[in-house]
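Our preliminary data section would be incomplete without showing what the modeling component actually yields. Below, a chain of 656 amino acids is followed by its predicted structure, encoded as tokens that our downstream tools consume directly.
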Amino acid sequence: MKSPDRGLIMSLFRSGCVLLLLFGHSLGDPPSFRVDHDNDCFRKDGEEFRYISGSIHYSRIPRVYWKDRLLKMYLAGLNAIQTYVPWNYHEESPGRYTFSGDRDVEHFLQLAKDIGLLVILRPGPYVCAEWDMGGLPAWLLNKKDIVLRSSDPDYIAAVDKWMGKILPMMKPYLYQNGGPIITVQVENEYGSYFKCDYNYMRHLVKLFRSHLGDEVVLFTTDGAAVSYLKCGAMQNLYATVDFGPGGNVTAAFEAQRHAEPHGPLVNSEFYTGWLDHWGSRHSVVSSAIVAKSLNEILATGANVNLYMFIGGTNFGYWNGANSPYAAQPTSYDYDAPLTEAGDLTEKYFAIREVIRMYKNIPEGPIPPTTPKYAYGTVVVKRLQTIADALETLSTSGPVKSSYPQTFIELNQAFGYVLYRTTLPVNCTTPTPLSSPLNGVHDRAYVSVDGAAVGILERNVALTVNVTGKAGSQLDLLVENMGRINYGKDINDFKGLVSNLTLGAATLRDWTMYSLSIDEAVGQGLLSETKPSDAPRPAAPSPPAFYQGSFIIPDGIPDLPQDTFLSLPRWRKGQVWINGFNVGRYWPARGPQLTLFVPASILSTTAPNNVTVLELEEAPCSSGPCRVEFTASPILNATVQSDHEQHTRLFNKHDLL
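Predicted structure:
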């Protein structure tokens, strides 16, 4: 065979061409990613491609740990990650956007690219994710009758504005534009929603195309059943399914084939664990079951995303809830291959060995589990009660109304609101204070003249008996425990959403205080109460703050380190460390007993302040209160559970 003319080859190179004999495509071809319906696969730059991905939510992991977690995912053999963009995390109030610090999604995408990971982006507008209101901002509820996830004009207007902000930011990161994003999901599991509004989905398709262009692969995700795909699948969107381990993989993919007769098989959410609720046992799924089902999926040639590969933490108030109302805890550990704190697990290595059977695993050492440190016991002293600190906490001042208003009407999205009225009659014998329409959303701490008398709780405790004279001050501190994130009840209003009764009478003339607790704690505005000779009342006690501090020596190498906060014998509340809202604790109900404290919020140059808001009863009757920092988490305390454990194919739609 005659050798090619060298001058011709160089001429072709200079003109931007590459011989098909040598490379198979043009040197000038831009990056491409598409669905190949003829060969049932994805094609990346013209070559057949299969992704093995893992879910990671940047909103649940401190920015300083993004690189560590992504590297561990890459070295497990993943070639892609999947992440949500929670709308409410970036636009907490209309038109005010935050994309810095832990919310710098562009930095996160760039890190993924630098490490060598492709990205499957799920920008909503609804994401579910066991995240407050499924990622939709609570201010949408300013229109009381708004129909979320539908063609409701007010909802569409807000979606158009948000997508007009986030999608142009994402466009430079599309694979076609030199970025890591290979596919973009439109909406999320819409086939599980009651509305089934095809016009809404068509509008989203046009909206996404207008901002991202015609080349990007847009897709949907729904449960692995034809019934879900009926309303979830849409023309011009590639339909994928989700299902967990322990079931018939072939049958699950048959549902996808109903919507997509040709194209790549895709499980967009292969569940490595499962979510938790307060009061239920910690979900645990064996490594063997996960590895077996993953092997079956990969053996079919399918693409898969492991949900979750690392769960992370619902810091602050970001946890969601399911219906009938059950809130998720602060930890989103998920029994994932990487723990809440990013630790390597048996499941991580089991999955890595399965992936090794199908592709090369990157060489190099896996970043080790980050060290943990037990800082020990910290004594905390009692500060003010909520009632004592009301003037400090309620910067917007009181709002008066004949009947109670919701959080949204009071322009408050998260946290706590104090509702105050007076007893209209003498209650010399115990008289029922009731929420006859189950209108306490979600938990109210009731006191009369400053003395705690009991708790009202959504779906659980609708009546508490009170005593007192006519004119006595009646306070209800109402806690938003997290909005429902899945199903038809995501329009989850908080506060007193219906009237309360005392005996047969409807209570009127309320004064309401929106509480800016995070700001007060962060600015150090809480003070210690004056000593009193009066004996402490027996449990329950009124909601009150407690505060202490501890020092981490700056002369010890590698400190500070991650740690876990334990609150033995405390009941329920919220914790801040150095002004950072670490999350909710509820050891009295479980299963989570410890809170993850990342080293990034700790200091070696100043005392570390710990502030506790105990809502029910602090363990101080026989001495000072204490909290303890330990080196090990406890997420699986034994609890009585009304929720059955999953013993078959996991399906998020079982929660309906």
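The chain has a mean pLDDT of 93. The chain has twelve helices and 33 strands. Preliminary results of this kind motivate Aim 1 of the renewal.
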